[in-house]
Amino acid sequence: MFEVFFFLYSNNILILIITFSAPFSRRKVVAFVLLLDILRRRGGRRRRLHWVHPLNQRRRQQGYFYHLVAELRLDSQRHQQYFRMSAEKMDELLSLIGNELTRQSTDNRSALEPKQRLAVALRYLASGDSLISLAFSYRLGHTAVINSVQMVCAAIEKTMVNRYLPRLTTDTWREVAERFWEKWNFPNCMGALDGKHIMIQAPPRSGSHFMNHEKTFSIVLLALVDADYRFRYIQVGDFGRTSDGGVYAESDLGVGMANGTLQIPQSISLPDAAHLGNVPHVMVGDAAFPLKPYLMRPYIGQNLNRKRRIFNYRLSRAKRVVEDAFGILASRWRIFYRRINLHPNNVNSLVMAACSLHNFLLAPSENVTLLMEAEELGRKMAPVRNMGANRASREACGVRATFATFFTSPEGSVSWQDRMVP
Q1: Between 104 and 343, whose confidence is greater?
Q2: For residue 60, what pLDDT is reported?
Q3: From CA 37, how far away is CA 35, in angstroms rounded?
Q4: Do residues 269 and 181 touch, judged by C-beta distance below 8 A?
């Protein structure tokens, strides 16, 4: 004997056949109902009650974009404070990436305007507010905010990186070196090198790969900066536990320098010091980096002679530009003071976008203000520490010694250096 039951659920008819060897009982009815409930929980989809939440349906009446953002365009100072850029620069940015942010509307809901997506993403970078907080403020769904941030960062990375972080050429290296001598009194310098931690939420099942020396989770941003705080090369995405030297050695920059494939200018004499011979073009870094013929680091130790102390001062002075560049970056985009709750791949895109925007917005008139704000906040991006010793070649030691001699010679000394060296 069998019974056939029909159950209507989610516009589908489920036909269930159960064979009974005894008369139908109440216990079997209960078992059947429980079985249907299990099937509903496992296979049924929860029906969407509404495509747009009632709170978000009042987006035009009460959302930030249609009111606060519109009013800020009438007040340039407050617009600058809110988005960390002027309305004119924001319009220029939109003209560059707007096509990448355009989506088609559907019968159920209208697509967000590109300028609203841009406003949400820039506010996320500028404030470090949580994604949930932005969703409530702009009367958007949480997913819409995440998508907007990811879309804007991807659009900037696709459209602007090659323009504002172009590949370095021989002429570019020379221009950077001339500017370093002119502004920071360090000749033959192709840039200042350093690495910082970008704090992230611990990715699931990532083990200790992203854990750094401070027991927080991060990825590493390696950057080479010119004399005017402009990023010339960046690499982002290495595990937080990696050292500066380790990140550099595996980077395109490190490999290219070692192999001589980066169109580095030929060695030339230092200014008015032909008697010292030709000297290679170099980068400057701190003690976390290895000493190479093309990468200078300070002398290590307590009882250094005058020549070595002056070299350390002059190198530190030139290297400070990369610290200041990171200070300007984080002062403008305060997301870097927070733990970023995105997938590491999306964090990589965000950092690339932020560095591209840094170069896009860089202006001497703003640098001092941003650095002062960074000092007032008293917060800095966490540095990456060295995790290994360095055995320098005789050639590298000779290059450093030549610079030290030059900095204490009449041709290369500066009037204030003796006051700065204890």
Answers
A1: 343
A2: 72
A3: 5
A4: no
Q: Note the pLDDT tens digit of each residue in 333-392.
A: 999 999 998 888 899 999 999 999 999 999 988 988 898 888 887 777 888 765 445 678
Could you tell me the residue ranges of all domains in the chain? 2-43, 56-164, 170-420
Q: What string of H, E and C letters represents the secondary structure of the chain?
A: CEEEEEEEECCEEEEEEEECCCCCCHHHHHHHHHHHHHHHHHHCCCCCCCCCCCCHHHHHHHCCCCCHHHHHCCCHHHHHHHHCCCHHHHHHHHHHHHHHHCCCCCCCCCCCCHHHHHHHHHHHHHHCCCHHHHHHHCCCCHHHHHHHHHHHHHHHHHHHHHHHCCCCCHHHHHHHHHHHHHHHCCCCEEEEEEEEEEEECCCCCCCCCCECCCCCEEEEEEEEECCCCCEEEEEEEEECCCCHHHHHHHCHHHHHHHHCCCCCCCCEEECCEEEEEEECCEEECCCCCCCECCEECCCCCCCCCHHHHHHHHHHHHHHHHHHHHHHHHHHHCHHHHCCECCCHHHHHHHHHHHHHHHHHHCCHHHHHHHHHHHHHHCCCCCECCCCCCCCCCHHHHHHHHHHHHHHCCCCCCCCCHHHHCC
Q: Which of 5-9, 292-296, 338-342 has the highest mean pLDDT?
A: 292-296
Q: What is the pLDDT of residues 57-92, one digit of tens each?
A: 666 777 788 889 899 999 999 999 999 999 999 999
Q: Which two tokens stand for residue 309?
A: 């102390």
pTM, two decimals, is 0.84
